[in-house]
Amino acid sequence: MAEQLIISTTSHKQQRYDQLLPQLEALVDGESDLIANLSNIASVLKYGMGFFWVGFYLVKEEEMVLGPFQGPVACTRIPFGKGVCGQAWKNKKIILVPDVEKFPGHIACSSESKSEIVLPVLKDGEVKMVLDVDSQKLNNFDKTDHSQLSRVVKVVENLLIVN
Question: What pTM was computed for the model?
């Protein structure tokens, strides 16, 4: 188990992801507790990539409930189809929002959040949770984040196989 991340803060985004992902995989390898793993994944992304807020919303019946996260206090419950997270759940698709103020129905958990990417996590074709990542900068997420955070989601989906 890693006790600290080794990520260069001066490297480009792709290089930071390249450094981060093997460490993230090693961190969860051999740990069977889902909440512990989600907690560490949120921390790895927050501190390894310098994101404003990173967390998971877990599907429970017809709403999502806040799960492990890193960052300021967040919304506790999000209804199906509401906000960016609810839309990612409803459509089973990644949603990248360059400016959250321009997203219809955006739920403002923090006025400091300016852009966002939300990725659904699936098991047996159903969304079990979403990975929500926010930035204090407009248009902070791009195709690199889309592809690399998708790799993180695959790690989480593999954790769901054993849980």
Answer: 0.92
